[in-house]
Every structure is written in structure tokens, then in C-alpha cells.
């Protein structure tokens, strides 16, 4: 099965309304076309729970990102502003930031709702595939730190189309459900070769992330991928299916058999927060306290394979 060998597969017949996908892109496109001053009113660094606009300048720590040029809009489970975790200062849970664009919230949140249902469905299917009792994974997804990203890549002029825009990484969560409009995504094969992922508007690209690799004791692999500047402009929408903030991720005992656990237990939220410090300079601000102390040289243990091989 593709999830085991390569960690990426595509699904069709997923039940997501393709019109809604199109309308979500239209709102993303409209928002990104606004002046910088407008977009910066929703700057992610103004939020305490990692929501909002990510400008081109918010560049993470990736040596291979020689031609990085993308902006994003990040959102998650839209909790009320009296949510106890939010009030307690949780860095990933709380209300979304919504731009003052008529219809944006309605369309994007209805996309979030549909895609999160699909995320649950695929998680349930994977439980069956792995021979796990129903709910083994999904019971840990009652208040997940799952995020939706609206992404807009722009290739700088005079740049080669083989240059790297989004640097090689694994995704930090359980699964990613990606819809993309344009070419550019590449995936690392088991033989450490980069291959292009074809674009198909009716399909979702699904990949395994770090949390699921650990849960399955490496049976499913969190696969490195990157985005090249193949298109002058590119839109995509990854949805990251995660566990709850405080879920302790460690190999499921049913999957261990005779093998020892190859992964040390870690909290879902702690892993994500640590990796976000690598990706978001705003989180390295000393005023953010403990979080900022993680920097520099943050490495993701799930990316070892990538670091060992040449590009
Ligand atoms: O834009 C894409 O196709 C992939 C994006 C991605 O890998 C990510 O945001 O983690
Ligand atoms: Fe990714």
C-alpha cells in the first residue's frame, strides 16, 4: 500500500464539494490580492494562538529555500473566545482570525468543516487498515490542533523553475489532505529521489505526518516533500489532521509485536510548537517566553532520512 512504501497517496470519490473547493480558492486569491497593509491587519504574529496572515517575509529556517516566495493564511478549529484552553494561554487553540472580506468566513469555514470530516474518515479507514480497534486514533481527535493553510506561491522573476520555494520537510501531524491547483510539489521516494506529484483537481493528495509515523512505530512513513517554482503563481490548500494538544504520541501497543518502540513518547502540541518555532520567526521573539528559547538549530527527528541523503 502506498502509505507504507512512499507515505503519499491520492484519493478520489472523497465527497468534498469541488465547487466549494473552487470558491475557497477564489476567496484565498481575493484576500492575497489585497494591499500588504490590509493583509497585515491579520498578521499571525498579532494572534496568541497562531492564526492569521503569514507574509512573504515570515521566512523559516530552511537552508534549501533559496527562492522562497510564498504567503499563507492559517486557521484551525474555530473555538469561542471563552474557551478554557485559549484563556489559559494555549498557543494553538482558540478562535480564528477572520479578514474583513464579505463571505470569506462563511466559505472558508464550511471548507474547514468538510475537510475535517474527511480527515476523520481517512483516519478511521487507516485504523481498519492497521487492524486497530475503531477509535484508536480518532478518540484523540476530539479537540484537535488541526490546521488549514491557504497558500499562495509567487515565483520571483528571473528565477529558475527548478529552484526550491518551500524547503524540504515532513509534516508534523498525523495526515495531510492537500488540494492543489498547480504543479510544483515533489515527494521523496524510498530511494531518496525527488518525484513530481501530478495535479488533478478532482483528487486529494494525502500524506502521512510525524505523529502517525510514531503511532504506527514506523509502519507508515512521514515523507519528505518540497515545492519547486514550477508555476509562476501557485495556489494550494493543505489541511493537517492532528491529534489533541495534550495527546501523548507513542507507538500503539497493538503495532509493536516483538519489535521495540522506535519512538520516544512526545506530546502532539509540544512537537508542533517546537517545529513552528523553526518555521515562524515571530515565535522566536523573546517576549514569547519559553517557546523562543528553542531556537536556533531546531531539528525534526522525523526528517533524518532527508538530512542523510543528497538533494
Ligand atoms: O503547497 C503544497 O503543495 C505543499 C505545502 C506543504 O507541504 C505544507 O504546507 O506543508
Ligand atoms: Fe508539507
Automatic annotation (TrEMBL):
Reaction catalysed? L-arginine + 2-oxoglutarate + O2 = guanidine + L-glutamate 5-semialdehyde + succinate + CO2; 2-oxoglutarate + O2 + 2 H(+) = ethene + 3 CO2 + H2O
Span list, region Disordered: 288-311
> Which GO MF terms does the UniProt record name?
2-oxoglutarate oxygenase/decarboxylase (ethylene-forming) activity; metal ion binding
- Cofactor requirement: Fe(2+)
One GO biological process term is: ethylene biosynthetic process
Q: Which family does it belong to?
A: Belongs to the iron/ascorbate-dependent oxidoreductase family.
The protein here is known as: 2-oxoglutarate-dependent ethylene/succinate-forming enzyme
Please report the organism this UniProt entry assigns to the protein.
Actibacterium atlanticum
